[in-house]
Every structure is written in structure tokens, then in C-alpha cells.
């Protein structure tokens, strides 16, 4: 999940070196926290959160295939 999140985020942002994904697990639940530069926040969140929600949908589908649940939080820089 972490690798997929990094891949998607780096494809969206200009400052790829500032993309950081932290992962924590509790049983079959995975919590991902995404940090990007302040300038790239709009690209990751999108209008009305559409891009962030699309990323969450992709992660949920990938997690379901592995029998897991995933949540994604985009953190303020």
C-alpha cells in the first residue's frame, strides 16, 4: 500500500523528493499518512477533494485484494 501511495503521489506533484508516506498497521487495518510540499497540496487534494478521494478508492480496491482495510490521511506540511 505504501509503495502504491508513493507512486501515485509522485506522479501528481512537482517536488517528488518531498513526498513522504508513513504506514502503521493494526491487524488487517493499514493507516497511511501522506505528506507533500505546501505547493503540491492542491494537486494531491484536488477540487473538493476529488483527487484525494480517487486515491483512497484505488487504495481500498488494492487492500481488498489482500484482505485488508486501508485509510489515507493527507497531512498539512
CATH architecture: 2-Layer Sandwich
Distance between the termini: 21 Å
User: Percent helix among the residues?
Assistant: 40-55%
Query: Looking at the structure, what is the overall shape?
Result: globular
How many structural domains does the protein architecture include?
Answer: 1
Proportion of beta-strand residues: 25-35%
Total helices: the number is 3
**Any idea what the radius of gyration is?**
12 Å
Largest sheet, strands/sense/barrel: 3 strands, mixed
For the secondary structure, the number of strands is 3
User: What's the CATH topology name?
Assistant: GMP Synthetase, Chain A, domain 3
Task: Explain how this protein is built.
The chain is α+β, with helices and mostly antiparallel strands. It has one domain (2-75): K homology (KH) domain (GMP Synthetase, Chain A, domain 3, 2-Layer Sandwich), CATH 3.30.300.20. The protein has helices at 2-12, 41-45, 50-65; strands spanning 20-26, 29-35, 69-75. The protein has a 3-stranded mixed sheet, covered by helices on one side. A hairpin with a 2-residue loop joins strand 1 and strand 2.
Key terms for this structure?
single chain; 77 residues; GMP Synthetase, Chain A, domain 3; 27% strand; three-stranded mixed β-sheet; 3 helices; globular; alpha+beta
In short:
With 77 residues, the chain is an alpha+beta fold.
Which helices and strands occur, and which strands form pairs?
Elements (H helix, E strand, L loop, with lengths): L1 H11 L7 E7 L2 E7 L5 H5 L4 H16 L3 E7 L2
Parallel strand pairs: 2-3
Antiparallel strand pairs: 1-2
Amino acid at each position: 500500500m505504501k509503495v502504491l501511495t508513493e507512486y501515485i503521489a509522485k506522479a501528481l506533484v512537482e517536488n517528488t523528493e518531498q513526498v513522504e508516506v508513513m504506514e502503521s498497521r493494526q491487524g488487517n487495518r493499514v493507516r497511511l499518512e501522506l505528506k507533500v510540499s505546501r505547493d503540491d497540496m492542491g494537486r494531491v487534494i484536488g477540487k473538493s477533494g476529488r483527487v484525494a478521494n480517487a486515491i483512497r478508492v484505488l487504495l481500498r480496491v488494492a487492500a481488498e485484494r489482500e484482505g485488508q482495510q486501508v485509510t489515507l490521511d493527507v497531512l498539512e506540511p
